[in-house]
Write a structure and sequence with these properties.
about 100 residues; alpha+beta; Translation Initiation Factor IF3; 2 helices
Length: about 100
């Protein structure tokens, strides 16, 4: 599956088949929360949260790809990511784009 942030695939003719998305709501665990609190005192990257968000993005991307595959797509163009806090201690990660088929010329 080709994933690209642009609206076209260079050198390819494409046909849109639909919007696809993948989402996950990820919560912090007590260990990460405690260490994050300690890190805010001294400053620097909160590696536990970085790891958690990277894992959540991977899951959201996989879910988006799964939707595209069900539509028979070859690629997803215009890929974007979003995030929001849905409650204290939990964040939603959203991956979305347009599923397309590559049309042979």
């Amino acid at each position: 599956m080709i994933l690209i942030t642009t609206d076209t695939i260079p050198g390819k003719k494409i046909e849109a088949v639909g919007l696809v998305k993948g989402a996950i709501v990820q919560s912090k665990n007590i260990g990460r929360d405690f260490m994050a609190g300690m890190k805010t005192i001294v400053g620097g990257e909160i590696a536990g949260y970085t790891e958690m968000l990277n894992e959540a993005r991977t899951i959201a991307t996989r879910r988006m790809i799964d939707e595209a595959e069900k539509l028979g797509a070859d690629a997803i163009v215009g890929v974007r990511y979003g995030s929001s806090a849905v409650m204290q201690g939990a964040a939603e990660i959203l991956a979305y784009g347009t599923a397309v088929k590559i049309v042979e010329e």
